[in-house]
Design brief:
With about 170 residues, this protein is mainly β. It has 2 helices and 9 strands. Helix content is about 10%, strand content about 45%.
């Protein structure tokens, strides 16, 4: 089984912007409502398109499967079948690991949401193990890993703007 181990955090301030190595615009939508056992997502990231199936559970460890699909198919799915959509710019920041035994650095993915989710900036880090240590940048705010409201599937169906714009 494919497993994703991910932690999510609110981003505070703009200091992170100076550390970005690259960025890509993303458009994604969901083919399922929130009540199911899995979320099924279509994503266009730059010129790449994927279909993603992820266990609909809250937490740092979830089953995840992702497959490349033709860009034209992704556009058609987004335009015709998705029940919720969102747009964002994903920024990438590479950080050294704090564990001297680890063999590679970690990459922070900073999602700067657009449209109805504008004003929300979330950092995610994928880890090789739940207990793997990592450097905590100064711009990292409170952890959101266990708060369903900040999952992309929820944001696509219940945009941040509808919350009254308060990320706390």
């Amino acid at each position: 089984m494919a497993i994703e181990i991910e932690r999510k955090f609110l981003v505070v301030g703009d200091a992170w912007r100076a550390e970005v190595s690259r960025a890509v615009e993303m458009r994604q939508g969901y083919l399922t409502q929130e009540a199911g056992r899995a979320s099924v997502r279509v994503r266009i990231a730059g010129a790449q398109a994927t279909l993603n199936i992820k266990a609909a559970v809250v937490g740092s460890v979830r089953a995840e499967y992702e497959y490349a699909i033709p860009l034209a198919d992704a556009r058609e799915l987004l335009d015709t079948l998705c029940v919720g959509k969102l747009e964002k710019i994903r920024h990438y920041i590479v950080y050294p690991v704090s564990d001297p035994g680890a063999r590679q650095d970690v990459t922070w993915e900073i999602d700067e949401f657009l449209g109805d989710n504008a004003g929300l900036v979330i950092a995610e880090i994928e880890l090789a193990a739940v207990d793997r240590p990592f450097v905590r940048p100064a711009w990292l705010g409170r952890e959101l890993t266990f708060d369903r409201r900040y999952y992309n599937h929820h944001l696509a169906l219940h945009p941040f703007r509808s919350w009254g714009g308060d990320a706390s």
